[in-house]
Amino acid sequence: MVKIADIELGDFPLLLAPMEDVSDPPFRALCKQHGADLMYTEFISSEGLIRDAVKSVKKLDIFEYERPVGIQIFGSNIDSMRKATELTQGANPDIIDINYGCPVKKVAGKGAGAGILQDIPKMVEMTREIVKSTHLPVTVKTRLGWDDDTKFIVEVAERLQDVGIKAISIHGRTRKQMYKGEADWSLISDVKNNSRMHIPVFGNGDINSPQKAVEYKNRYGVDGVMIGRASIGNPWFFNQIKHFIKTGEELALPTISERVEVVKKHFSMSLEWKGEHEGIVEMRRHYANYFKGIPDFKPYRMKLVTSLDSEEIFNTLSEIQHEDFVRR
User: Whole-model pTM?
Assistant: First the structure.
């Protein structure tokens, strides 16, 4: 049984990665329903929380059905991160996660996210202060290092554990790699197999099939895996992995009708949580993934991504549900 502090997550937990503009409450609800064991919110700016910025504060929304759920924060100023931790604690998550992995320039370039990998002492000090300022378990999401010359993750993970984190998720790339090339899990394995490590170590990067999840579980010995891009438009992925672990067989893919039912549910929750306009616009990024591989789908996708009328979108989805794509 893998545990973060007292939170039991099962024998090989599957975590939903924090993804900006993706891991919102509607999407998390679907991933939970389809097998995710632990989910994290989109990352939240510490400065935004302190300024009471609407977008940042709204990301604190979590719901009982999601538990266990972690709220992820990022920032480059230790004092701001400590204050943000206290504000985050007020939203009553199960876990507070620190983002030391985001590689995008507007974050890392300011010394936040993966940017802090250029200053490991500050990273350790910030973590210590965050742990001290909350009664909740603190976890970390990070990368192997800033570049190929600074892959100090084995030592870094040990130092973060020593200041009190309760689990670590490691993306198998450096900041310089962004999302290019192949994720290197050998160093993640070195962290897990370090005899001084006693907290859960989760691997992240390139898990795009149930077979790969099982292969990496066996080869690298991690406590669980964190799923990011492979879950977008595919919340079934978590149960597909669980089924393959249990039986060695692939779970049947959802039918088009089943896909549409989930899309309708996702869209309904988005409208409820975000309002009409934002709910419609932000749903657009998901359609291509939900309906990936369906022949002659482009006319329907164009209707879905250009309409600004929710009733029209629901009608289009119903058309898709009753269309015979196989015979066309």
Answer: 0.93
